[in-house]
User: Which sequence fits this backbone?
């Protein structure tokens, strides 16, 4: 699942990321951090595309973006050799 | 499997900056740090810090940084670069530092064509000292020292540094970019990368002006301040590349052999 992590203590609550997110998946938080800001937080929706637009506009580098990726071709090739065991573990 | 596709660059230390919420100094810092990482020059980079809001940038960059006297960042940078040409030197200055008190040093360093990259953050106001008028303050803009708005009769016109720099022969690359939305941040990133490349590969003087928002002194929420930059500042400070000389040998060395050849033929005759 694609997701973002907003660093609670680094965020200063400017909410530029809220405007930047094309899917409106970031909202204003309700808890104060140590600096006295209300940091932004991701909503419960799971439709994030890991486009990183929020992180691009974040002036405080508070956002990390994680993208769901397939296993690399080398690993996939290695996995195909031990396919029966892989299937067992999946089952 | 999840892959991290965006995180803090190595060139930036993991600390909370002192900048106000929504100040684009942080974005500019990140772009510079990304460029340092990209070109792999962090170990031999020296940043020159100005006086102004970014006066404490040595706390945020993960490279060597030196603090210059107010406005003299390019004079200090010249000294560093001439003593150690192997180092990568960049200055990071605001409009009060570069365009006001340090205008003389800036113009002469640019005219000499020093091999330095300049990141110039223009937010149209003196941020650190409390929102006084800067040389780049827009006409009719209200500040604490121009409460009725800047007028031509009293304070003159806003100073357009990118245009000024483009007229100097020593400057290799000069661009004005902004950071008010994703597209502009990406353009600013490209501009900074190109300015660094100019120094690393061609020993040229690169100048990047970044239009920045100062929500505190504009007395606006961050999103509105960004919109103000897009709607108002860009009218006075048009974005674009003002100068980008093609890479290659400068005219002076190439003309020297031609002159020698002429002399040679003259002697032969």
Assistant:
């Amino acid at each position: 699942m694609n997701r973002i992590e907003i660093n609670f203590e680094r965020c200063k609550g400017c909410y530029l990321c809220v405007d930047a997110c094309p899917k409106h998946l970031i909202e204003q938080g309700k808890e104060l951090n140590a600096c006295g800001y209300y940091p932004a937080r991701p909503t419960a929706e799971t439709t994030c595309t890991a486009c990183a637009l929020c992180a691009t506009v974040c002036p405080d580098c508070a956002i990390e973006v994680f993208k769901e990726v397939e296993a690399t071709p080398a690993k996939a090739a290695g996995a195909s050799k031990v396919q029966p065991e892989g299937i067992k573990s999946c089952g | 499997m999840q892959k991290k596709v965006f995180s803090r660059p190595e060139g930036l230390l993991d600390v909370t900056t002192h900048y106000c919420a929504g100040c684009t100094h942080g974005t500019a810092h990140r772009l510079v740090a990304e460029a340092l990482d990209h070109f792999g020059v962090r170990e031999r980079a020296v940043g020159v810090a100005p006086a102004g809001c970014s006066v404490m940038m040595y706390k945020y960059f993960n490279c060597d940084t030196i603090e210059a006297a107010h406005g003299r960042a390019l004079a200090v940078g010249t000294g560093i670069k001439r003593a150690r040409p192997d180092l990568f030197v960049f200055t990071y200055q605001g409009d009060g530092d570069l365009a006001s008190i340090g205008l003389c040093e800036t113009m002469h360093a640019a005219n000499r064509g020093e091999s330095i990259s300049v990141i110039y953050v223009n937010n149209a106001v003196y941020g650190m000292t409390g929102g006084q008028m800067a040389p780049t303050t827009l006409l009719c803009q209200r500040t604490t020292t121009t409460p009725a708005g800047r007028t031509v009769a009293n304070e003159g016109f806003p100073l357009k540094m990118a245009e000024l720099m483009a007229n100097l022969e020593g400057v290799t690359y000069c661009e004005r970019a902004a950071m008010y939305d994703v597209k502009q941040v990406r353009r600013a990133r490209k501009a900074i990368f190109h300015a660094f490349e100019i120094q690393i590969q061609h020993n040229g003087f690169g100048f990047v002006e970044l239009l920045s928002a100062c929500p505190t002194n504009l007395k606006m929420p961050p999103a509105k301040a960004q919109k103000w930059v897009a709607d108002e500042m860009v009218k006075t400070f048009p974005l674009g590349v003002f100068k980008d000389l093609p890479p290659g040998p400068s005219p002076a060395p190439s003309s020297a052999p031609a002159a020698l050849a002429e002399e040679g033929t003259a002697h032969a005759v």
In short: The first strand of chain A starts at residue 3 and ends at 6. The beta strands of chain A are 3-6, 26-28, 40-42, 63-68.
